[in-house]
Amino acid sequence: MSNNEIPDRASDFDDIPTYGADKTTKDNDVYRRAGRVAPQKIEPQSAKDPEATTVFEEPKVDRSAPLASDAPANYEPSSYADEDYAPTGATPVAPATAVYADPNAQVLSDEQVEQVAAVGAAEGAKRGTIDFGLLLLRVVLAAWLLYDSITVFFGVGDRSLGALESDFGAYANPNLLSIVLPTLELAAGVFLLFGLLTPIAAALATVATSFMFLHQVFLANGEAFASVKNTLFLSGLLAALSVVVQFTGPGIISLDTSRSWARRPLASSWFFVLAAIAGAVALWWFGAAVNPIQR
């Protein structure tokens, strides 16, 4: 047979199935060609297998017992009526009127409220010339405190830190006192002059002037009273003025015009006066450490 007479699908491969092959081999060969595993037959487990499934018995229920729903219902209707609990003789209340806030209203801060109250009090109350008098009182006290402290710090005339330290030579800490006292006077004078933080400034002035008053009392015990009476009276007057400013307040002609103590000092005055007296006593106790009335 020539090549032209060979069928198109004919080949020289020997894997062409034959009709005389075994059926099992033929079936397996089909799954093998398809790339699959031939199905297997799984036999059921025997009854003697210890891992066989356990069958539970159905629980026995006594269906002749009475049910809970068969119990008699002992319901008795209540004998009260709604009218028994209704209030008698009640006054009808009118419906509340709805109040709506203005969305355009301006909310003032605490500081602005104090300023508005201060302006209203200044315009509404007839204070006369009292604020001008308080201004003069503050200026006089502040001027003396500033003069006394500046002359010590800058050594004007016969006053200086060294001279003040020699004046305090009989005390325990003369060097410390010669610096602390002018500093207190300078700080109190500046704040009193502008009327700023007046309660604190007046308290500092009270501490400084009270110490100087005790210093003059100490000097008067060892010297002739006539030679120190002027300075003794002056220091006592300055201490009294500082306490007066504490109780009167700075007035509205000051930087504290928006504060309540500028017009009407209340409990703060007593607090700062007592604190200033305690500070003066402590400064004398630890700084001087001597008895001012016995020398």
TrEMBL record:
- Residue spans making up a coiled coil are none
Pfam families the record matches: DoxX
Basic and acidic residues bias spans: 1-12, 23-32, 46-63
Q: Which UniProt keywords apply?
A: Cell membrane, Membrane, Transmembrane, Transmembrane helix
User: Where is region (Disordered) located?
Assistant: 1-88
For this record, the Gene Ontology CC terms, alphabetical, are:
plasma membrane
- The principal location of this protein is membrane
**Family of the protein in this entry:** Belongs to the DoxX family.
Q: State the name under which the record lists this protein.
A: DoxX
Specify the species.
Corynebacterium pelargi
